[in-house]
Amino acid sequence: MGAKWSKRLKLMRISKYAIVICLLLSIVFAGFTIYGINTGNFNVYITESDVDLAVYMQDDKSDISAHMSIETLDYMYDATYAELPRNIASTGSPERGLGIKNDKINNSYNAFSLCLVNRSERAVDYSMSLIVTDSRAGYEGGNAVNAMRVAVIEENNPLETAKLYAAAEATEENAALLAEALKKYGEYPSQTIYFKSEELIFEEMHYGLEAGGEVKYTFVFWLEGCDEDCVDNLIGGKLKMRLDFKGS
Q1: pLDDT at 40 > cutoff 90
Q2: Sequence-separated (6 or more) residues with CB below 8 Å from residue 218
Q3: pLDDT band at residue 193, thresholds of 50, 70 and 90?
Q4: Do β-strands 42-45 and 124-136 pair in parallel, antiparallel, or remain unpaired?
Q5: Other CB atoms closer than 10 Å to residue 4's CB: what's the count?
Q6: Phi, psi of 60 (to 5 degrees)
Q7: Which residues contact 48 (CB under 8 A, 6 or more apart)?
Q8: Cβ distance 125 to 213 under 8 Å?
Q9: What residues are paired with 57 via a beta bridge?
Q10: From edge to edge, which strands make up the β-sheet containing 31-35?
Q11: Element (H, E) at 149
């Protein structure tokens, strides 16, 4: 095992100072924060607008609301794509496969599934975007966004169908080293979609969610251990993001 990979594995042996992830998600505001010690919950908010969108994570919709709090891991280590569950979207609640799906055994990813509902009396178009609103380098200067990966899965499809988002590699050498490592540990099934910028992770438009219609999304966040930027200098970093669903 190469020296660089061994250096990355040091991150997985750290306990007290492990990277921790806290997400705050909302229809118009969300945050994703990496701390060195403390954590919090995912929070989902929906604000008033001229269309009526809502989210829920229970099969019977008993939790449908403008706000919900979602438990996170106390700390999170690096992982690689090949280690993620292929059926993560369909696991969870008995009927719809909803709910919190954080890896509490290896602390290697945060994930959850929810349903977005259009309670308006007409069809709604909506945008979905993930935006970095604040960041802080790790104790040794590392930028967590460079090693972060985001997978977005629709409905109960397998992980292989997910849209995978990542920052572009800083150099051609880093890109080659990443490709080499992924060949050994497990390649991505499709081409990665690069973050639009350090501030805008992704932005996509969806059309024609009919009145009473629903769509299920599963979000998976991890730090890619095969990435050259996934090293110990990420520890103590802070990254806040906002996930927007905007109906029109």
Answers
A1: no
A2: 88, 89, 101, 111, 112, 113, 151, 152, 153, 162
A3: very high
A4: unpaired
A5: 14
A6: -85, 5
A7: none
A8: no
A9: none
A10: 31-35, 20-26, 42-45, 67-70
A11: strand 148-154
Q: Determine contact, residues 123/206, Cβ cutoff 8 Å.
A: no
Q: For residue 29, what are the contacts with CB-CB under 8 A and spacing of at least 6?
A: 45, 47, 242, 244
d(CA 205, CA 203): 7
**pTM of whole model > 0.90?**
no
Q: What is the identity of the amino acid at 243?
A: L
End-to-end CA distance of the chain: 52
16 Cβ contact partners less than 8 Å away, ≥ 6 residues apart: 37
Proportion of the chain above pLDDT 90, given as a percent: 46
Amino acid identity at 213: G
Token pair 């629903």: residue: 214
Rounded mean pLDDT, 116-120: 92
| β-strand partners of 155 | none
Tens digit of pLDDT for each residue in 60-88? 999 987 666 667 676 778 889 999 999 99
Contact (Cβ atoms closer than 8 angstroms) between residue 156 and residue 98: no
Q: Is the dihedral of CA 224, 145, 90, 22 positive or negative?
A: positive
CA triplet 70, 227, 134: central angle to 5 degrees? 45
Give the helix/strand (H/E) hosting 247. strand 238-247
